[in-house]
Write a structure and sequence with these properties.
With 137 residues, the protein is α+β, with helices and mostly antiparallel strands. The protein has helices at residues 2-16, 33-44, and strands at 21-27, 50-63, 68-79, 84-94, 100-109.
C-alpha cells in the first residue's frame, strides 16, 4: 500500500517537529493488521509519541464521473500524546445526485492503531502468569 509509505514518512517528520500535523485519505484497509504495523510504532513510542487527532475509519467515497464507489479512511496525525476525535458512519443513504448522505457519531479519546477509542485491544499480549496453565484448544 503505497500511501502507507507516505503516512510513515509524514509521521516521522511530525514526531521530529518538522511538521505540525499531517492528514491522509487512505483505503479503509489501514485498520487491518498489515497496515496497522505502520501506525503502531508511531502511536506507541513513549519518547516521541504521535497521536491521531482525527479519524474516520470507514467512509464511502463516491465519484459519479468515474463510477467509483469505494470505502476510505481519513486520519490526521499530530506530535505528542493527546485525545482525538473519532467519527463513525452510523447511517448512509444514496441521494438523487448519486452521492452518499452520511450521519456520523463522534467519540473522543485516545485513538488506537485500529482506529478505535478505548482499550488498545489490537496490541494486547497474552498474560505471562497464565503461561503453561491454560490452553487455547
Amino acid at each position: 500500500d503505497f500511501v502507507m509509505y507516505w503516512w510513515h514518512h509524514a509521521a516521522q517528520l511530525t514526531r521530529r517537529g518538522a511538521l505540525e500535523r499531517f492528514g491522509f485519505i487512505t483505503t479503509n484497509s489501514i485498520r487491518q493488521t498489515f497496515n496497522r504495523r505502520v501506525l503502531e510504532p508511531h502511536l506507541s513510542d513513549k519518547k516521541q509519541p504521535l497521536s491521531l487527532a482525527f479519524a474516520i475509519p470507514d467512509h464511502p467515497w463516491v465519484d459519479t464521473a468515474d463510477g467509483a464507489a469505494v470505502r476510505i479512511a481519513m486520519t490526521v496525525g499530530v506530535a505528542g500524546e493527546q485525545p482525538g476525535r473519532l467519527l463513525l458512519v452510523v447511517r448512509e443513504s444514496a441521494t438523487e445526485q448519486d452521492e452518499a448522505d452520511i450521519e456520523l457519531d463522534e467519540r473522543r479519546g485516545i485513538i488506537q492503531q485500529d482506529l478505535r477509542t478505548g482499550a488498545a485491544v489490537a496490541s494486547a499480549l497474552p498474560l505471562k502468569a497464565m503461561d503453561g496453565l491454560s490452553s487455547r484448544d
